[in-house]
Amino acid sequence: MREEMYSWLNGPGAVFREPLPGSTNYLNAYDRDGQLIRMKNGRQARATKYDKGNGDAVSEESESLKKDSSHGPSPSIKGEMADDFIPFPQNRQFRSQPVLSEELKDEIWRRVVDLKRSVRTVSMDLNVEMSRVGAVVRLKAVEKQWVEQGKRLATPYASAILNMLPQTPFISGPYQPIHESINDLPVHRATETQTFYPVAESRQFTRRDAGRVFKRGLLPAEDRIPHPQLVELERLKLEGVPRVDGVIRQKMVEEEKEKEAFKEKMRQREERMVKKVLPGGDKGRYEFRFRNINVEQAGKTGRGRQGVGARYGLPAQDRKRGQIKIPTKVE
Fold first, then answer.
1. Residue 101's pLDDT is what?
2. Structure confidence by residue, pLDDT tens digits, 34-61
3. Type and span of the H or E element at 288
4. Coil, helix or strand for 261?
5. What is the spatial distance between Cα 193 and Cα 210, in angstroms, rounded to a whole number?
6. Residue 100's Cα: distance from chain center in Å?
7. Distance between CA 131 and CA 295 in Å, rounded?
């Protein structure tokens, strides 16, 4: 057994001493002779073409294949295939899934933290699930905090692990490679049971009605998916609207929704800060509302808009005696 192991290490396994850069270098990517299968197949295909016209070209091609296999990677090697992502030759059903590259992680951090874009927008632009975008931002924050504290990072170890896994790169352009599905709909527990609901034939029964049947308040699938705006983009595409115009329109709608959500959040926050007192109990006809006041908000003149009351506020002049309410000129 030991002799066989050393025989493999000194023979086909010798190629793993200097791994091919930019490749996962799994066992399934090499044959029993230690040759890269995708490079070997490509050379054999070209050799078959040359064989039809010149027999010497076949021998030259085979010699170059041996040289490439012995001297390391060649720049003409094509990208990895699906079979190259199988780390265990005896388990061909398992394929290694790609991970985010460091460049893509830095771009996620830049868009969320520096550019102040929403997690939903970054997820849609970079084809990364929203939960993963949030995780990247949190881990990047911890990493930068450690750097500020002077802690050492395991950068060589992380780099070595990343080199052994397929990665999704960041491409600056309109077409970013898809890392994963970002619009998967989780199965709601209320929809796991089988339900029979009689409906008249003349009635239009939609997905929204089906959601109400399963559970009151359950939204349809197009509203519960993480990115419902993609459905609207597809509709615009079917209507003949260019993709660029559709994306711009969706971003404007998304920004408007974010502004409305922020205003609603601030309104709820102000409501929580107000202390309400009902003199007559829950059935009282009136109530007193108390909130904390900062007199500095009235400004230097005492008439600031943030001031409270007639003394500090800016009362209207429309009912004051002596004010001219009739227009004196037309512009």
1. 93
2. 888 887 765 554 444 434 444 443 334 3
3. strand 288-290
4. helix
5. 13
6. 11
7. 44
Query: Given CA atoms 188, 194, 195, 201 in this order, what sign does their dihedral have?
Result: positive
Q: What is the number of other CB atoms lying within 10 angstroms of the CB of residue 65? A: 20
* Distance separating the N- and C-terminal Cα atoms of the chain: 102
In which element (H, E) is residue 277 found? strand 275-277
Range with lowest mean pLDDT among 50-59, 74-83, 241-250, 313-322: 50-59
Q: What is the mean pLDDT of the chain?
A: 79
How far apart (Å, rounded) are the C-alpha atoms in residues 127 and 273?
Answer: 40
SS3 326: coil
Indicate the angle between helix axes 119-126 and 102-109, nearest 10 degrees.
150
DSSP symbol at 275? E
pLDDT of residue 300 exceeding 90, the answer is no
CA distance 276 to 182: 44
User: Distance (Å, rounded) from C-alpha 102 to C-alpha 104?
Assistant: 5
Contact 289, 276 (CB under 8 A): yes
DSSP string, 186-240: PPPGGGSS-------TTS---HHHHHHHHSTTPPPHHHHSS-THHHHHHHHHHTT
Contact 112, 137 (CB under 8 A): yes
Residue 314: per-residue pLDDT = 55
Contact predicate 80/107, CB 8 Å: no
